[in-house]
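Many introductory courses stop at the sequence. We go one step further.
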Amino acid sequence: MYHYRKTRKSYRALNASDTTKPVCTLCDEDNKPRIIRETTTMILLPNRVSYDIFEGMRVVEHLMIVPKRHVEHIEDFTNQEKMDFMSLAGEFEMKGFNVYARGAKSATRSVAHQHTHLIKTDNKKAKSVVYIAKPHILIRT
């Protein structure tokens, strides 16, 4: 998952502003208007700053499954949360979304509230990807 320079700047700025908030970014009431769908225990949100590239393909849509309850790990889900989570993940996987979550101890995990990314790509694999200190260049045939 990669951001181009412009989206990386937005991502970093939002993450920096998150540290000044008194409440978890994903628990924040400001997310309410952004909710696309909800179950008893989960909400579906668009990611604030979508990835630009995922697995060498352009990202066309980027959503997140977020537990309503502040919980850091899937392991801590209640049975109802597990059912709601799997139902949403399965539904969106069938719609062509990739299901991705960082591990609990990942150094790149930006929020200590479990969230799982649903990433839909244009499904056009790049012939080559050039990584030169970002932004990245995709060359397709």
